[in-house]
Amino acid sequence: MSSTSSKRANETLANGEYWATCRERNEISAALNGHGDVFPQARMTVIDGWAFFYRNSEEVWNCNARYAATNFIVQQA
């Protein structure tokens, strides 16, 4: 494992609002990885270590914040 991968895996997200963009390049890959409801991008709220993903103000998926930091491109909203 490279130092970049291990560093990213150890990152945690602070409580707040973010944009989460799928790392997968297409809808099929995203669906196979369980990220179909988030593809290509969704609003994400982090609260106490959990990431909640929203589309049109409706929650579509959630996971722990460490998983989100590792598996999505996360930008401050």
Automatic annotation (TrEMBL):
Keywords: Plasmid. It comes from the Bacteria. This is Uncharacterized protein. It comes from Paraburkholderia acidicola.
